Amino acid sequence: MRRYPRRRYPQRRFTYRCARRSWMRAVVLALAGLCLVAGAWALLEGVIWPEATGERVSSDGSLTMDYSHADEGYVMARATSSKRLKLRVTKGDTTLTYDLNGEGDYEVFPLQLGDGKYSWTLYENVSGNSYAQAGAMSFSVELVDENAAFLCPNQYVNFTPESEVVALAAELCGGLESDAEKFAAVREYIQENYLYDYIKAVTTAPGQMPDITGCMESRMGICQDLAALAAAMLRSQGVPVEFVIGYAGNVYHAWTVVRLESGDVLYDPTVDVNGIAAGAAYTTERFY
């Protein structure tokens, strides 16, 4: 706050000037606040923030799904159980399996396989590695935008409007207009500020999800952390990005595909931070 030099005034005049300054300061602060709010919403324009609005909901067994915004590239699913749960989605010849928390809270699942009929099956752990069906349903999807699923958060690219990664992306991309410019800014930032975590690479348990927050705190991460970080930053700026899992050569790996107007760009943050040229062939197993 600006400090004004203190002067000698008659008591009435001094009181008047202080009151006027207080009023002016209040107006300036209010205007600044409005500008910040407007600016924040502008920076988040084009991003899809999932919500379960209850307009279209189906339940079967232990599974409840809110598909009110399926046309925007996502659905919400929940179940309550003390046992481990798996949610399997099938569309055509493709089947994907997710973990689902049993706390009854909605989780986001992308409709990254495009238009068509999706079938969902919930499985509950019985013993060991054995699961029994605990619910199932199907519904058809027609997306408003083929990129919709790659503009919102999910289990693999997990962020909220309040996440630090969103604020950082807004700072890096402030004033930039094109998706290509935003991509270049994010790519340069990650390349210059992050390292590959070789220790985590050999100690991480199978099935562990990407950790964007931990990656930001340590400025280090394994392939899936770096890929999720890049995807979250770009998605929060309205740039559609696929989070991809598959193989680089014969190494199990994670990377991204950035969907620009000029065409799709394979972007591997791990290659960038290690300062090496990409030489291996990439084979996609699944993407989110």
TrEMBL record:
All residue ranges annotated as the Transglutaminase-like domain in the record: 215-271
Annotated coiled-coil segments of the chain: none
InterPro entries, per database record: Papain-like_cys_pep_sf, Transglutaminase-like
Top-level division of the source organism's lineage: Bacteria
UniProt cross-references to SUPFAM superfamilies, sorted A to Z: Cysteine proteinases (SSF54001)
Pfam families (alphabetical): Transglut_core
Gene3D superfamilies, per the entry: 3.10.620.30
PANTHER family according to UniProt: BLR5614 PROTEIN-RELATED, SLL1049 PROTEIN
Protein name: Transglutaminase domain-containing protein
Natural source organism: Candidatus Alectryocaccomicrobium excrementavium
